[in-house]
Protein backbone atom coordinates (compact mmCIF):
# COMPACT_ATOMS: atom_id res chain seq x y z
CA UNK A 1 0.00 0.00 0.00
CA UNK A 2 1.28 3.48 -0.87
CA UNK A 3 0.46 6.73 0.96
CA UNK A 4 0.54 9.84 -1.27
CA UNK A 5 2.28 12.99 -0.07
CA UNK A 6 1.13 16.59 -0.48
CA UNK A 7 3.98 19.10 -0.07
CA UNK A 8 2.94 22.61 0.97
CA UNK A 9 5.56 25.33 0.45
CA UNK A 10 5.49 29.10 0.61
CA UNK A 11 7.18 32.18 1.99
CA UNK A 12 7.19 33.13 5.65
CA UNK A 13 3.65 34.00 6.75
CA UNK A 14 2.09 33.19 3.38
CA UNK A 15 -0.77 31.15 4.86
CA UNK A 16 0.55 27.58 4.73
CA UNK A 17 -0.65 26.67 8.23
CA UNK A 18 -4.11 28.06 7.49
CA UNK A 19 -4.27 25.97 4.31
CA UNK A 20 -3.14 22.78 6.06
CA UNK A 21 -5.55 23.35 8.96
CA UNK A 22 -8.43 23.77 6.51
CA UNK A 23 -7.49 20.59 4.66
CA UNK A 24 -7.42 18.60 7.89
CA UNK A 25 -10.64 20.11 9.22
CA UNK A 26 -12.46 19.33 5.94
CA UNK A 27 -10.88 15.97 5.14
CA UNK A 28 -14.18 14.47 3.90
CA UNK A 29 -13.47 11.11 5.49
CA UNK A 30 -9.79 10.92 4.60
CA UNK A 31 -7.26 10.02 7.30
CA UNK A 32 -4.62 12.70 6.84
CA UNK A 33 -1.38 12.90 8.81
CA UNK A 34 0.47 16.22 8.96
CA UNK A 35 4.22 16.78 9.21
CA UNK A 36 5.09 20.36 10.16
CA UNK A 37 8.54 21.93 9.85
CA UNK A 38 8.71 24.84 12.32
CA UNK A 39 11.86 26.86 11.73
CA UNK A 40 12.62 27.48 15.39
CA UNK A 41 12.67 25.76 18.75
CA UNK A 42 8.97 26.33 19.47
CA UNK A 43 6.47 24.41 17.35
CA UNK A 44 3.84 27.13 16.92
CA UNK A 45 2.53 25.88 13.56
CA UNK A 46 2.19 22.31 14.81
CA UNK A 47 0.23 23.51 17.86
CA UNK A 48 -2.15 25.43 15.61
CA UNK A 49 -2.67 22.49 13.23
CA UNK A 50 -3.16 20.07 16.13
CA UNK A 51 -6.49 21.79 16.74
CA UNK A 52 -7.71 20.21 13.49
CA UNK A 53 -6.27 16.71 13.87
CA UNK A 54 -4.46 14.57 16.42
CA UNK A 55 -1.97 13.18 13.89
CA UNK A 56 0.65 15.93 13.76
CA UNK A 57 4.41 15.42 13.80
CA UNK A 58 6.61 18.47 14.39
CA UNK A 59 10.15 18.75 13.02
CA UNK A 60 11.66 21.71 14.85
CA UNK A 61 14.68 24.00 14.80
CA UNK A 62 15.93 23.20 11.35
CA UNK A 63 14.97 22.89 7.72
CA UNK A 64 13.77 19.63 6.17
CA UNK A 65 15.53 20.52 2.92
CA UNK A 66 18.88 20.11 4.69
CA UNK A 67 19.52 19.47 8.41
CA UNK A 68 16.24 17.65 9.16
CA UNK A 69 16.04 15.56 5.99
CA UNK A 70 16.86 12.33 7.83
CA UNK A 71 14.21 13.12 10.43
CA UNK A 72 11.65 13.58 7.67
CA UNK A 73 12.43 10.19 6.13
CA UNK A 74 12.18 8.47 9.51
CA UNK A 75 8.89 10.26 10.20
CA UNK A 76 7.38 9.12 6.90
CA UNK A 77 8.46 5.53 7.63
CA UNK A 78 6.81 5.70 11.07
CA UNK A 79 3.57 7.17 9.70
CA UNK A 80 3.02 4.43 7.13
CA UNK A 81 3.46 1.81 9.86
CA UNK A 82 0.54 3.22 11.86
CA UNK A 83 -2.69 1.30 12.25
CA UNK A 84 -4.79 2.44 10.53
CA UNK A 85 -2.48 3.71 7.82
CA UNK A 86 -3.14 7.33 6.78
CA UNK A 87 -4.84 7.91 3.45
CA UNK A 88 -2.46 10.81 2.78
CA UNK A 89 0.40 12.75 4.36
CA UNK A 90 0.67 16.54 4.24
CA UNK A 91 4.11 18.08 4.72
CA UNK A 92 4.20 21.78 5.57
CA UNK A 93 7.67 23.15 4.90
CA UNK A 94 9.28 26.04 6.71
CA UNK A 95 8.90 29.42 5.04
CA UNK A 96 12.69 29.43 4.78
CA UNK A 97 12.77 26.19 2.74
CA UNK A 98 13.53 25.75 -0.93
CA UNK A 99 11.23 22.81 -1.77
CA UNK A 100 13.33 21.67 -4.74
CA UNK A 101 15.65 19.59 -2.56
CA UNK A 102 12.70 18.06 -0.69
CA UNK A 103 11.08 17.19 -4.02
CA UNK A 104 14.26 15.46 -5.18
CA UNK A 105 14.37 13.45 -1.96
CA UNK A 106 10.72 12.41 -2.19
CA UNK A 107 11.21 11.33 -5.81
CA UNK A 108 13.93 8.86 -4.80
CA UNK A 109 12.67 5.49 -6.13
CA UNK A 110 12.81 3.79 -2.71
CA UNK A 111 10.92 6.58 -0.96
CA UNK A 112 8.51 7.08 -3.85
CA UNK A 113 7.53 3.40 -3.77
CA UNK A 114 6.02 3.80 -0.28
CA UNK A 115 5.15 7.53 -0.01
CA UNK A 116 4.87 8.90 -3.56
CA UNK A 117 4.96 12.67 -3.97
CA UNK A 118 1.50 13.47 -5.31
CA UNK A 119 1.22 17.26 -5.40
CA UNK A 120 3.44 20.27 -4.66
CA UNK A 121 1.58 23.45 -3.67
CA UNK A 122 3.10 26.88 -3.15
CA UNK A 123 1.12 29.43 -1.14
CA UNK A 124 1.47 33.14 -1.95
CA UNK A 125 0.32 35.94 0.37
CA UNK A 126 -1.63 38.34 -1.85
CA UNK A 127 -1.51 41.20 0.66
CA UNK A 128 2.23 40.80 1.24
CA UNK A 129 3.00 40.77 -2.49
CA UNK A 130 0.78 43.81 -3.09
CA UNK A 131 2.60 45.72 -0.34
CA UNK A 132 6.07 44.52 -1.37
CA UNK A 133 6.21 43.96 -5.16
CA UNK A 134 9.99 43.49 -4.87
CA UNK A 135 9.26 40.16 -3.15
CA UNK A 136 8.78 38.69 -6.63
CA UNK A 137 12.51 39.22 -7.22
CA UNK A 138 13.50 37.24 -4.12
CA UNK A 139 15.36 34.07 -5.12
CA UNK A 140 13.68 31.94 -2.43
CA UNK A 141 10.21 33.21 -3.35
CA UNK A 142 10.84 32.34 -7.00
CA UNK A 143 12.25 28.91 -6.08
CA UNK A 144 9.13 28.09 -4.05
CA UNK A 145 6.98 29.14 -6.99
CA UNK A 146 9.06 27.18 -9.51
CA UNK A 147 8.75 23.91 -7.57
CA UNK A 148 4.95 24.08 -7.41
CA UNK A 149 2.46 22.06 -9.42
CA UNK A 150 -0.26 24.45 -8.22
CA UNK A 151 -0.07 27.98 -6.83
CA UNK A 152 -2.54 29.05 -4.14
CA UNK A 153 -2.96 32.81 -3.86
CA UNK A 154 -4.06 33.29 -0.24
CA UNK A 155 -5.69 36.24 1.52
CA UNK A 156 -7.35 37.45 -1.67
CA UNK A 157 -10.04 39.06 0.48
CA UNK A 158 -7.43 41.55 1.72
CA UNK A 159 -6.64 43.06 -1.70
CA UNK A 160 -8.74 45.02 -4.17
CA UNK A 161 -9.48 43.99 -7.75
CA UNK A 162 -6.63 46.02 -9.26
CA UNK A 163 -4.10 44.61 -6.79
CA UNK A 164 -5.30 41.07 -7.42
CA UNK A 165 -5.01 41.54 -11.18
CA UNK A 166 -1.42 42.69 -10.73
CA UNK A 167 -0.62 39.70 -8.54
CA UNK A 168 -2.08 37.29 -11.06
CA UNK A 169 -0.08 38.94 -13.83
CA UNK A 170 3.12 38.53 -11.79
CA UNK A 171 2.43 34.87 -11.05
CA UNK A 172 1.57 34.30 -14.73
CA UNK A 173 5.16 35.22 -15.59
CA UNK A 174 6.21 31.95 -13.95
CA UNK A 175 3.17 29.66 -14.00
CA UNK A 176 0.28 29.07 -16.43
CA UNK A 177 -3.02 30.60 -15.25
CA UNK A 178 -4.73 27.19 -15.17
CA UNK A 179 -2.42 26.13 -12.32
CA UNK A 180 -3.19 29.16 -10.10
CA UNK A 181 -6.11 29.32 -7.66
CA UNK A 182 -7.39 31.85 -5.15
CA UNK A 183 -8.12 30.96 -1.54
CA UNK A 184 -9.63 32.72 1.45
CA UNK A 185 -8.77 31.24 4.86
CA UNK A 186 -7.26 28.17 3.21
CA UNK A 187 -10.41 27.04 1.40
CA UNK A 188 -9.41 25.07 -1.71
CA UNK A 189 -11.12 22.08 -3.37
CA UNK A 190 -9.75 18.84 -1.92
CA UNK A 191 -10.26 17.03 -5.22
CA UNK A 192 -7.61 19.30 -6.69
CA UNK A 193 -5.02 18.29 -4.08
CA UNK A 194 -6.03 14.75 -3.16
CA UNK A 195 -7.10 11.99 -5.49
CA UNK A 196 -9.80 9.70 -4.11
CA UNK A 197 -7.82 6.60 -5.09
CA UNK A 198 -8.10 4.29 -8.05
CA UNK A 199 -10.92 4.74 -10.52
CA UNK A 200 -13.84 2.37 -10.28
CA UNK A 201 -13.64 -0.92 -12.18
CA UNK A 202 -16.01 0.32 -14.86
CA UNK A 203 -16.41 4.11 -14.57
CA UNK A 204 -18.67 6.02 -16.93
CA UNK A 205 -16.95 7.36 -20.03
CA UNK A 206 -18.75 10.69 -19.94
CA UNK A 207 -17.46 13.64 -17.95
CA UNK A 208 -19.04 14.94 -14.78
CA UNK A 209 -18.86 18.12 -12.76
CA UNK A 210 -16.70 17.75 -9.67
CA UNK A 211 -18.81 18.27 -6.54
CA UNK A 212 -16.02 20.17 -4.76
CA UNK A 213 -15.97 23.08 -7.18
CA UNK A 214 -18.10 24.13 -10.11
CA UNK A 215 -15.03 25.27 -12.03
CA UNK A 216 -13.58 21.76 -12.58
CA UNK A 217 -14.57 18.97 -14.97
CA UNK A 218 -13.39 15.38 -15.02
CA UNK A 219 -13.44 12.45 -17.39
CA UNK A 220 -13.18 8.75 -16.55
CA UNK A 221 -11.90 6.46 -19.31
CA UNK A 222 -11.24 2.74 -19.66
CA UNK A 223 -9.71 0.50 -22.30
CA UNK A 224 -10.10 -3.25 -22.72
CA UNK A 225 -6.81 -3.63 -24.63
CA UNK A 226 -3.26 -2.61 -23.67
CA UNK A 227 -1.93 0.77 -24.77
CA UNK A 228 0.98 1.64 -27.01
CA UNK A 229 3.51 3.42 -24.81
CA UNK A 230 4.65 5.73 -27.61
CA UNK A 231 1.07 6.66 -28.50
CA UNK A 232 0.14 7.14 -24.84
CA UNK A 233 3.12 9.47 -24.38
CA UNK A 234 2.05 11.42 -27.44
CA UNK A 235 -1.56 11.67 -26.20
CA UNK A 236 -0.55 12.87 -22.74
CA UNK A 237 1.85 15.35 -24.32
CA UNK A 238 -1.04 16.82 -26.30
CA UNK A 239 -3.39 16.87 -23.30
CA UNK A 240 -0.99 18.17 -20.63
CA UNK A 241 -1.35 21.92 -21.40
CA UNK A 242 -5.06 21.74 -20.53
CA UNK A 243 -4.92 19.21 -17.69
CA UNK A 244 -4.65 19.90 -13.98
CA UNK A 245 -4.09 16.28 -13.02
CA UNK A 246 -4.60 12.73 -14.22
CA UNK A 247 -4.21 9.38 -12.51
CA UNK A 248 -4.89 5.75 -13.17
CA UNK A 249 -3.66 2.28 -14.05
CA UNK A 250 -2.34 1.38 -17.48
CA UNK A 251 -0.79 -1.63 -19.20
CA UNK A 252 1.26 -1.48 -22.37
CA UNK A 253 1.40 -3.86 -25.28
CA UNK A 254 5.09 -4.66 -24.76
CA UNK A 255 4.34 -5.82 -21.17
CA UNK A 256 0.60 -6.59 -20.98
CA UNK A 257 0.85 -8.46 -17.68
CA UNK A 258 2.72 -5.69 -15.84
CA UNK A 259 0.28 -2.97 -14.68
CA UNK A 260 1.68 0.52 -14.20
CA UNK A 261 0.48 3.48 -12.12
CA UNK A 262 0.35 6.73 -14.10
CA UNK A 263 0.17 10.11 -12.37
CA UNK A 264 0.20 13.62 -13.80
CA UNK A 265 0.11 16.75 -11.64
CA UNK A 266 0.56 20.03 -13.48
CA UNK A 267 3.37 19.27 -15.92
CA UNK A 268 5.01 16.54 -13.80
CA UNK A 269 4.25 13.00 -14.96
CA UNK A 270 5.41 9.63 -13.58
CA UNK A 271 4.85 6.00 -14.53
CA UNK A 272 5.86 3.38 -11.96
CA UNK A 273 5.04 -0.27 -11.31
CA UNK A 274 1.55 -0.55 -9.87
CA UNK A 275 0.85 -2.22 -6.54
CA UNK A 276 -2.65 -3.00 -7.84
CA UNK A 277 -3.27 -5.77 -10.36
CA UNK A 278 -5.55 -5.30 -13.35
CA UNK A 279 -9.05 -6.69 -12.97
CA UNK A 280 -12.21 -7.37 -14.92
CA UNK A 281 -10.19 -7.53 -18.15
CA UNK A 282 -9.75 -3.74 -18.04
CA UNK A 283 -6.27 -2.80 -19.28
CA UNK A 284 -6.44 0.93 -18.58
CA UNK A 285 -8.43 3.05 -16.12
CA UNK A 286 -7.80 6.78 -16.07
CA UNK A 287 -9.35 9.87 -14.51
CA UNK A 288 -8.57 13.29 -16.02
CA UNK A 289 -9.31 16.59 -14.25
CA UNK A 290 -9.22 20.03 -15.85
CA UNK A 291 -10.59 23.51 -15.39
CA UNK A 292 -13.85 23.96 -17.27
CA UNK A 293 -13.19 25.30 -20.74
CA UNK A 294 -9.51 24.34 -20.84
CA UNK A 295 -9.95 20.94 -22.51
CA UNK A 296 -12.26 19.50 -25.14
CA UNK A 297 -13.73 16.20 -23.96
CA UNK A 298 -14.12 14.78 -27.47
CA UNK A 299 -10.48 15.55 -28.27
CA UNK A 300 -9.40 13.86 -25.04
CA UNK A 301 -11.44 10.75 -25.84
CA UNK A 302 -10.04 10.64 -29.37
CA UNK A 303 -6.42 10.99 -28.22
CA UNK A 304 -6.82 8.33 -25.55
CA UNK A 305 -8.58 6.03 -28.00
CA UNK A 306 -5.72 6.42 -30.46
CA UNK A 307 -3.31 5.28 -27.72
CA UNK A 308 -4.92 1.81 -27.59
CA UNK A 309 -2.78 -0.72 -29.42
CA UNK A 310 -4.71 -2.27 -32.35
CA UNK A 311 -5.31 -6.04 -32.15
CA UNK A 312 -2.42 -8.00 -33.59
CA UNK A 313 -0.04 -5.04 -33.82
CA UNK A 314 3.52 -5.93 -32.94
CA UNK A 315 4.49 -4.50 -29.59
CA UNK A 316 6.97 -1.69 -29.83
CA UNK A 317 9.23 -0.97 -26.89
CA UNK A 318 9.91 2.61 -25.87
CA UNK A 319 11.46 4.11 -22.75
CA UNK A 320 11.04 7.33 -20.83
CA UNK A 321 8.23 9.15 -19.08
CA UNK A 322 4.89 10.17 -20.42
TrEMBL record:
Cross-referenced Gene3D superfamilies: CobW-like, C-terminal domain, P-loop containing nucleotide triphosphate hydrolases
Reaction catalyzed: GTP + H2O = GDP + phosphate + H(+)
Pfam families attached to this UniProt entry: cobW, CobW_C
InterPro entries: CobW-likC_sf (IPR036627), CobW-like_C (IPR011629), CobW/HypB/UreG_nucleotide-bd (IPR003495), P-loop_NTPase (IPR027417), Zinc-reg_GTPase_activator (IPR051316)
MF-aspect GO terms: hydrolase activity; nucleotide binding
Job of this protein: Zinc chaperone that directly transfers zinc cofactor to target proteins, thereby activating them. Zinc is transferred from the CXCC motif in the GTPase domain to the zinc binding site in target proteins in a process requiring GTP hydrolysis.
Protein name: Metal chaperone YciC
Organism lineage string: Bacteria, Pseudomonadati, Pseudomonadota, Alphaproteobacteria, Hyphomicrobiales
Gene this protein is translated from: yciC_1
Amino acid sequence: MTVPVLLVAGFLGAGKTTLVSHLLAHAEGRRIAAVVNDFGAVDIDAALIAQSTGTVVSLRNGCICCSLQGDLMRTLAQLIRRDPVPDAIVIETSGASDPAEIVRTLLDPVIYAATPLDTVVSVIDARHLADRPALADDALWRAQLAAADFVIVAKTDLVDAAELAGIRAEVARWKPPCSTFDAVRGAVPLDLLFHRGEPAAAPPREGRRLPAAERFDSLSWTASRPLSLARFQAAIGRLTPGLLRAKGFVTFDHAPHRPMLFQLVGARATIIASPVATRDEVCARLVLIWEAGCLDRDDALRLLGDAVAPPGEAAGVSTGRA
